[in-house]
Amino acid sequence: MIFPMCIALIAGYIIAREAKDDTLKSILTIPVSYSSLLWGKLLVCALLSLFFGLVSAAFTVIADLMMGFPGISVTSILQTFIQIILNCLFLYIAVMPVIAFAARISNGHMIGTIIAFVYGYGGMFASGNAALANVYPVTASLGLISYRSYDPAVHWNVLICLFSMIAVLMITAVFVFTAKGNVPVKAAKKRTKTTTKKGW
C-alpha cells in the first residue's frame, strides 16, 4: 500500500524536476526525444525499486536474526531476498502507468502520488477476492512471487498475473510514446523573434 505511493512520489519528482527548474528545454535541444528521456528515468526508478527491495530484504533478515525466530536457514534467507526484491520491482511496474500519466501533466507528480496511494490501497480490497487478486496489478505482483503459496487457501494463477503485468507495461508504453515535454517551446520561439527584431 505504501510502496506504490512512495515510488510514484520519487519517480514523479525525478521526472518533473527539469520542467520545474526550467532546464528541460535545454536538455531537449540534444537529439533525444522526450519519450526516450522518460524511458530512461523510468528505468532508473526501476533500478531504485530493486535497491529498495534489497534494503527491505536485508532489514527483514537482520530483524529475524535479532528476534531469534525459529526455522531460519540459508534457503529461507535466499527466498526472502528473491521474493521481496521481485515484489518491489513488480509493484513498481504496476504503478508505472500512473507515473507515466502524471508525467504528461505539468507538475502532475503530486496528483500521481495521490492516485498511486488510492491504487495501492485498492490492493487491500482486491486481495479479498481470488479472481480479482490475480487481475489487479498491485496484488498480481504477489502472485508472481508465489506469496503465501504454502497456504492451501491461496490460489494464484501465475499466467493471469503475468498478463496483468504485460497489460500494465503496454499502457505505460502508450502514455510514454505519446508524451510531450511540458516546455513552452512556441512562447520561447516568439520571444526569440521579438528580440531579434528589436535588436536586443
List key phrases describing it.
globular; 76% helix; 9 helices; mainly alpha; 200 residues; single chain
Shape: globular
| SSE order, one letter for each helix or strand | HHHHHHHHH
Helix content: over 70%
Poorly predicted sequence stretches spanning 5 or more consecutive residues: 183-196
Q: What class, by secondary structure content?
A: mainly alpha
Structure summary, number of beta strands = 0
Could you tell me the mean pLDDT?
A: 81
**What percentage of the residues does DSSP assign to strands (E)?**
under 5%
Measured on Cα atoms, how large is the radius of gyration?
21 Å
Give a short account of the largest sheet.
none
- N-C termini distance: 55 Å
Descriptive report:
- It is a single chain.
- With 200 residues, this protein is mainly α.
- 76% of the residues lie in helices and 0% in strands.
- The chain has helices spanning 2-20, 24-27, 34-67, 74-102, 109-126, 130-135, 137-144, 158-177, 185-198.
- Helix 1 (2-20) packs antiparallel against helix 3 (34-67), helix 1 (2-20) crosses helix 4 (74-102) and helix 4 (74-102) packs parallel to helix 8 (158-177).
- The longest helix is centred in the N-terminal third of the chain and has 34 residues, at 34-67.
- The termini are far apart.
- Residues 183-196 have low confidence and may be disordered.
Summarize the helices and strands and which ones pair or pack.
Layout: H1 2-20, H2 24-27, H3 34-67, H4 74-102, H5 109-126, H6 130-135, H7 137-144, H8 158-177, H9 185-198
Helix pairs in contact: 1-3, 1-4, 1-5, 3-4, 4-5, 4-7, 4-8, 7-8
